Amino acid sequence: MNPIQTDIVVVGAGPGGYVAAFCAADKGKKVILVEQEKKLGGVCLHRGCIPSKALLYATKMIHEAESSSARGIQFSKPTVQLDKLRAWKDAIVDKLSQGVSGGGQRRGVTVLTGRGLFEDSQTLRVETPEGQKFIRYQKAIIAVGSKPAMPKAFDLGNPRVMTSTEALELQDIPKNLLIVGGGYIGMELGTVYAALGSKVVLVEALDSILAGADADLSRYVMKYAEKNFSAVRLNTKVSKMSTSGKEIKVNMEFDGKKLEESYDRVLVSVGRASNTEDLGLKNTKVTVDEKGFIKVNTRLETSDPWILAIGDAVGGLMLAHKATKEARIAVETICGGSDVFENVVIPAVVFTEPEVAWCGLTESEARQKGIEIKVSRFPWGASGRALSTDRAEGMTKLILEPETDRILGVGIAGIGAGDLISEGVLAVEMGATAMDLAQTVHPHPTLSETLMEAAEAFYGHSTHIYAPKKP
Amino acid sequence: MDIRIPNLGEGADSGTVVSIYVKEGDHVAKDQTLIELENEKAVAPIPSTRDGVVSKIHVKVGDKVTVGQIIVSLGAGASGQAPKLVSAAPAAPVSVPAQSQASLVSAAPGDYQYVSKSGFPPPASPTVRKMASDLGIDLHRVKGTESGGRVSLADVKAYVQYLQSLASHPKTPGGTSYMAPKIAESVDFSRWGPVRKKAVSSLRQKIAQKMAESWATIPHVTQFEDVNITSLMELRKKYVGAYEKKGAKLTLTSFILKAVVAALKKYPGFNASLDENTQEIVYKDYYHLGVAVDTEQGLIVPVLKDVDKKNLFEISKDLETLAEKTRSRKVGIEDLKGGTFTISNLGGIGGTYFTPIINKPEVAILGVGKGRHVAWDVIGGAVGATGRSPLLMPIGLSYDHRVVDGADGARFVRAFAEAIENFSEKDVKQ
Q1: What angle do CA A30, A274, A145 make, to 5 degrees?
Q2: Is the pTM of the predicted complex or chain greater than 0.80?
Q3: What CA–CA distance (Å, rounded) separates A62 from A85?
Q4: Of B198, B9, B10, B210, which is closest to residue B98 (Cα–Cα)?
Q5: From the CA of B124, how many Å to the nearest CA of chain A?
Q6: Kind and range of the H or E run holding B57
Q7: Are B122 and A431 an interchain contact pair (Cβ–Cβ within 8 Å)?
């Protein structure tokens, strides 16, 4: 059988893969996009970012309705129709997925459904429903992404032990839900299920939730979780799980005590593992690290001259927008451009209550690396917009270089932080100084003013908080 | 009113602040020293240009500053009020490595190097970074003019223009293009044994730059000669005591200075400079001789002015003072400028012939080695009246072959040798 000839083959159609395919097609390349699932979009669209945000939005209403009574507007207690909620969520995912497919069609990208395996450095075998197909390519971009990690000790083969994939399918609303892992996935899904009425117990092995975020930002989320979850247990290790009738029996060590508890469901959210096994990489010169992430240089080239790799498959920050940026750089590399993935500011957003977002240097990272910084904070209690939205819990902070006042990092906690952070990303990318931010007029009354006021506070002339002048 | 770094003279457009003698609120008088600048080959005091009260000091010790940069701002000093004098005797200059810190000031654009304490790359927008990367420009070398030192598109353009000007005028003074054309990759010498590292001082950098520039641009020829100094050394022996009583050290260098002037007067091409821009040879009717002085920090060449108008005693006395000032690095910028010819006497240390590098823009330099007795028949001359073998002083004259030719080079060393060999006793007597 004659192999299909193409310029570029992209393996995986998530936010890294489909962007790479589209970008290469826009540059006039002949592109084949290989995806093992029927629908394009990858984990982000089907089992990650998008469905979780839909559920967070929908369930937020339950809280809003409740808290509204304090403002003199009373709603009756909301009832949840789970089937309808699930269908609404799925419709959003479908609509977006169709959008991706349409984008591919219009650009002339050929989509092959099936699992891809490398036969050698320049040949990919795809197992399609119609049988095997071989693709002979000039360059391949691996964008196979990652999957939820499931430690062997927790893998009981019991559907009551879930990963984020199953949790987002909303089988039922468990009465008692244990979440193992206090990272962003555990905290976001905990927020959804707690709002739906589950009694959520969250355990985290480390001494804080939301690793990577500064403690003065994550504390708002901690406060929310302590109020709305049944328990948040830090420094806690789950030692064993076992099936016990319709429940899962869990043994854990917390506060020096050994506990044995039973839950209707358990969500394991302890990280993500790369999907690079079973890809036939051993038939190529591609090398992986001890965790299975593909080794690449700043141009996203692997150790095989025919193959590039991007996204979660290469590790680093496992975020959709990082994969998308890498996709563009990988295509630039193939087309002879000079772009490299270096000094790229990748913002992180946690869609909890409230949201937490940061970019560039964090305060804790600076302390860790011994980088001298100055920090300016603006608490949202002084923001007219935050107060009038009845969400005064929050903070905007700037991490600054002492001699130049250059903005090295921005951190925000509060509602809408995920959208506000983009101004911070722009500031860091542009090499802006606190003075630049302070001098830029921000509309009143908005939450974006908190960025300006944090900068003003640095110079001791914030309008809404009193900070003594710098010596 | 701002006081700025004044014009420092040829080839010197920057320096490092080594001391600051005033503080904010101080009254200063016109001509009072504000700061000391380590520059070129000396530490130079920068005086105030008027009376006033210091309202702001814009530099700090260790800053690299350029001509035109503001040093201090003066407020209105009530005239008539006695200015408070600050530390009349300047403290010994402290040697500060000329490392530009995150300070965003530099000399020529080519000298600039961005260093951030936080370890972050130079601030610049993604557009600017992409353009620099496409052009193969290292943004660390581009001085940013926007707030916080951010590099703008205009800064990159200016840098590209600077690079272009370097390419079309490779003789631009102050450029570092005479150093190795491409900086070689660093070798990790610690692989073979323990090493110690030391930052190159600004003086060392200046020497390196001047030597490399001279070597790269001047076609050097070195003419050797042996000069019989047997009778000259007897003369010196006879008068050294008398000179000492009058407070001057009579050295061989004093005689050499006098003899050089005699040779220069005969062959004025060696007391000239080539103006490369106008293609003119500039003959100088004055005789200011540079004398290479070995200091702890490295080579410095102070200039002894109007040697032709001085007698041997004055030459000896002035030379001693100048050398002492140089060794203690108290020599002023003015003492380093205006030389017409340079003498480098290594005879006191040892070694015979060497090929000195011309002190540009001069035309020639005389290198003197250690004298030694040789058997008479080697040079085919007669043994002196005393019956001893003659004492010969080895010399090497390097000259710019663009200005003078080999025949004149040979004539010059002969003229010099004759002036030494026939040194008149009446010129030594006081």
Answers
A1: 35
A2: no
A3: 13
A4: B198
A5: 5
A6: strand B52-57
A7: yes
